[in-house]
């Protein structure tokens, strides 16, 4: 193996695959990045068994030459050392050559680095995925859907399935659900698929989706999503992102979401976020983040919180609409802020069925976002 | 006829501190005088194993060198004829209640400090006689009706009353006036003042304040610099001042716990599960009776070598339900105890208590509807058991014949005592950290 590669291109690829490097791995070879040089270009692979990422640097891109190949071949280099070294190398082009025993020489400008490599044949194969269930969607939409749901997943390992976002596709409708028992976030979008594709209960770790989000291209690009038995592949132009599907059945949630409300209000999102944010400053002191919402007959709403040590915050804001009972309800202000921040709309419609039942928040513009928050059980 | 009012201060209060002498042993002697009265006896845990620790001993035993905290072995070396008794809390609680009832006859302002001592404010009890007469009456009634000795301190505040009852044991009756303080207390070391522990005493010694008198005359600025607000209190207390009121109601419990010693060393998971279920049931019952919810579940496990560990877990949300408490207790046990290792004692303690009315409980999407129904079920079951007794309503898993099923008849309470001597080899751990 011998080639030279553009430092910027190599760096970009390294950054992409590094999301799949875990510092604590039980399989030593997975602490490395696998490099394959071929006449087509350079392929970098990293994996922590849950996620595997492959990034491809084409030898030529337009009239630009990224890789000059002298001899094809492969090697696995220790990720941590390799990543930091490449970032600090001086010249625009980097030359790499594998010697005996996988020892690899990296030359750049006046630098000469000898790195102890590992046998590429020992590197595990990437998951084989059949291309029979494929959907395509714009990267911007995918990023938005992840942002609107992944924040609500559970961080507790007591119910592992809830640490993931559940994907369902049926009737040309894709639905993502994130839920940590105390709140639930869903986002739906219509999806033109060939031959009425469908899948259910595809649960992908919220953490993984956040990593994917960082790799998704900035310019809007179509992403292929390939779903298999236990793996999902997100296929971008030069990146393959494989994720394990979480084991277990995702709980049925649709029946738990109230469809009819005793109270409905429409509120300006920005003003409500600001009011709750100020109340949150006090309420976060006692870890519960508890904030109280009281509706007044004059179409105003009062948001308040108090702390014995710090004092009290009371905010009054106008409601655009109000129908049904005047309600008093207490909730975790952090949950409400998280939900309101992903509504992406000037006005939100909030539905209530009682002070001990779920609160439903939806954007007024009809985008299929639904945020649900369970309130605090209080006696006052 | 003398004017009783003259014996009461015009301003200020009259407080008695009543301290039962060698309470546990005295109770045994009173309950079974033929066996124990006038003999060297000691209450100790695990008599049969000879590994227990002396919890308390009679004056006859103390005269021969037996001390609280000694191992049974050591105590027997000092006093070969020592009669050892296992604690019986049902008995102690019964006597404790009766002694408090007697005290209650003279004033409603009774603050029970523990099972064997109380403060009583008799400022408004002139109808029963002078303070000294009331104290004598109480002492005589406790002796004749219950057969128990006690020492009583009579003073204008709780601090001096407590110091007074300590002056003469057993059967003491000590009046400690403010004007007696310099003569009686000032010559004594600081550590003897009620409320000064060994740490504070050591700190005072560093400041060259060795006696209560020196403390009373110390520079308050110096004391507040060293001890903060406690500094002013120290100086005030050393001159016999204390304005804390007698609180008739006890402050809310900080924890609720039950432990039970097993009849033999348990190894079977089913047996252990049943014990935990019964412990969870009774702790949850007490929790709900006090209208509290708990945030933390702690379990206590003791092995046959008396090595004791406690493990605790703070739940994401506070609870009042037996199933949550049982589940966490079992999980802690499974995690921290090797299957098949023998167990001698098990306990559950509910900590991190907050009044239910003030607690903010985050509702859960998957069981917020069930939670409301469970609350109603709890209420209904508590109601039935309050009316017809603990045994009237049980789940099948609670049935058995080990002592854990007996905690329902409230005979083996034993929490405070049994935890008293957990101290030594204790190994505490919190599962959340």
Secondary structure layout plus pairing:
The complex is a heterodimer of chains A (380) and B (433).
Chain A: E1 2-6, H1 7-18, E2 32-38, E3 41-47, E4 51-58, E5 60-61, E6 64-65, E7 67-71, E8 73-78, H2 79-88, E9 93-98, E10 104-108, E11 111-115, E12 134-138, H3 139-150, E13 164-170, E14 173-179, E15 183-190, E16 199-205, H4 206-215, E17 222-227, E18 231-235, E19 239-244, E20 263-268, H5 269-283, E21 290-295, E22 300-307, E23 311-318, E24 321-324, E25 328-332, H6 333-341, E26 347-352, E27 359-363, E28 369-373, E29 376-377
Antiparallel strand pairs in A: 1-7, 1-9, 2-3, 2-8, 3-4, 4-19, 5-6, 9-10, 10-11, 12-17, 13-14, 13-16, 14-15, 15-28, 17-18, 18-19, 20-24, 20-26, 21-22, 21-25, 22-23, 26-27, 27-28
Helix pairs in contact in A: 1-2, 3-4, 5-6
Chain B: E1 15-20, H1 23-31, H2 33-36, E2 41-44, E3 54-57, H3 59-63, H4 72-78, E4 83-85, H5 89-104, E5 110-114, E6 117-121, H6 131-146, E7 150-155, H7 158-167, E8 173-175, H8 181-185, H9 198-206, H10 212-216, H11 220-227, H12 229-238, E9 256-266, H13 269-289, E10 292-302, E11 308-319, H14 322-336, E12 343-355, E13 361-362, H15 368-388, H16 403-406, H17 415-420, E14 427-430
Parallel strand pairs in B: 2-4, 7-8, 11-14
Antiparallel strand pairs in B: 1-6, 1-7, 2-3, 5-6, 9-12, 10-11, 10-12
Helix pairs in contact in B: 5-6, 11-12, 13-14
In short:
Chain A is of the alpha+beta class and 380 residues long. Chain A folds into 3 domains: 2-122, Roll (DNA Polymerase III, Chain A, domain 2); 133-254, DNA Polymerase III, Chain A, domain 2, CATH 3.10.150.10; 257-373, Proliferating Cell Nuclear Antigen (Box).
Question: How would you describe the overall organization of this protein?
Answer:
- The complex is a heterodimer of chains A (380) and B (433).
- Chain A is built from six helices and 29 strands.
- Chain A has three domains: 2-122, DNA Polymerase III, subunit A, domain 2 (DNA Polymerase III, Chain A, domain 2, Roll); 133-254, DNA Polymerase III, subunit A, domain 2 (DNA Polymerase III, Chain A, domain 2, Roll); 257-373, Proliferating Cell Nuclear Antigen (Box), CATH 3.70.10.
- In chain A, helix 3 runs antiparallel to helix 4 and helix 5 packs antiparallel against helix 6 (333-341).
- Chain A has a nine-stranded antiparallel sheet. An eight-stranded antiparallel sheet of chain A has the order 8-2-3-4-19-18-17-12. In chain A, strands 7-1-9-10-11 form a five-stranded antiparallel sheet.
- Chain A is elongated, with a radius of gyration of 25 Å.
- The termini of chain A are far apart.
- By secondary structure, chain A is α+β, with helices and mostly antiparallel strands.
- Chain A has helices at residues 7-18, 79-88, 139-150, 206-215, 269-283, 333-341; strands at 2-6, 32-38, 41-47, 51-58, 60-61, 64-65, 67-71, 73-78, 93-98, 104-108, 111-115, 134-138, 164-170, 173-179, 183-190, 199-205, 222-227, 231-235, 239-244, 263-268, 290-295, 300-307, 311-318, 321-324, 328-332, 347-352, 359-363, 369-373, 376-377.
- The longest helix of chain A has 15 residues, at 269-283.
- Chain B folds into three domains: 1-185 and 240-249, Reverse transcriptase/Diguanylate cyclase domain (Alpha-Beta Plaits, 2-Layer Sandwich); 186-238, 5' to 3' exonuclease, C-terminal subdomain (DNA polymerase, domain 1); 256-431, DNA polymerase, Y-family, little finger domain (Dna Ligase, domain 1, 2-Layer Sandwich), CATH 3.30.1490.
- In chain B, helix 5 packs antiparallel against helix 6, helix 11 packs across helix 12 and helix 13 packs across helix 14.
- Chain B is globular.
- Chain B has helices at 23-31, 33-36, 59-63, 72-78, 89-104, 131-146, 158-167, 181-185, 198-206, 212-216, 220-227, 229-238, 269-289, 322-336, 368-388, 403-406, 415-420, and strands spanning 15-20, 41-44, 54-57, 83-85, 110-114, 117-121, 150-155, 173-175, 256-266, 292-302, 308-319, 343-355, 361-362, 427-430.
- The longest helix of chain B is centred in the middle third of the chain and has 21 residues, at 269-289.
- In chain B, strand 7, helix 7 (158-167) and strand 8 form a beta-alpha-beta unit.
- Chain B is α+β, with helices and mostly antiparallel strands.
